[in-house]
Amino acid sequence: MNYFFWLLGLGAIFTLLERWAPRQERRLLRKGWATDLTHILMNSFAFPYLIGQIVPYQFPSLHLGWAVGLGWAGQFVLMTLYCDLAQYGIHNLLHRVPFLWRFHKIHHQAPTLDWMVNWHFHYAEVLVYRSLLYVPAGMFGFSGEVMFWHGVLGTAMGHFTHSNLRWNLGRWRYVLNSPAMHLWHHAKAPKNKNFGMVFSIWDWLFGTAHFPADDPESLGIAGEEGAPQTWMQQLVAPFKAT
Ligand SMILES: [Zn+2]
Predict the structure, then answer these.
(1) Residue 13 belongs to a domain
(2) Residue 129 belongs to some domain of the structure
(3) How far is 1 from 45, CA to CA, in rounded Å?
(4) pLDDT tens-digit series, residues 79-138
(5) Do the Cβ atoms of 230 and 239 come closer than 8 Å?
(6) Structurally, how many domains does the chain consist of?
(7) Ligand 1 mean position to 140 CA, how many Å?
(8) Domain limits for position 232
(9) 236 CA to middle of ligand 1, Å?
């Protein structure tokens, strides 16, 4: 199964949903769409392909392949839980370590949320997440097919939680992340809330959940107007002295 078709299909589904029941009315080609389309193409295909050409994906097996015995479903469940908890921790660090925040703030400089913003991030994040999630998974014997479907799930949930929709998932809010919850992660204030990706459990467990009934006053980073606008400016911004 080709990831490109999943990316295209999920993009089409969320574009239609956002037209049908938007949280905020806005034009289809809203400001910054070309920059975000470039992020999508570069972060999902071009950069991973280039890295694949330079770095051979050959990791020592370490004879740790115990996950093989779990079967497909067991591997998928364990991989989803493990990766989501790891992402919760990594995402926390991206916010709290100043050097890492220089890269992650590109994602938070997006002034609005819709599914395209899911891809509006610096490529360094792909390197960090891929190496910390998928390299250990490969070493522990998780199959390539399970990793692929985990990637599809991550894309679907990322599109969903960033989408311009008003869904809060009712009681399921204590288990799963949602557009209404993730909106508060992108709020100017309060900072450092709702770090979860697929599951919201980690935020409720570790005290970082913030989920009032209303919407945040504004999105973005307080006191940081004049953020880099083009894809190239956003790519080089973290390396510039501040
Ligand atoms: Zn963040």
Answers:
(1) no
(2) yes
(3) 15
(4) 999 999 999 999 999 999 999 999 999 999 999 999 999 999 999 998 888 888 888 888
(5) no
(6) 1
(7) 28
(8) 81-242
(9) 19
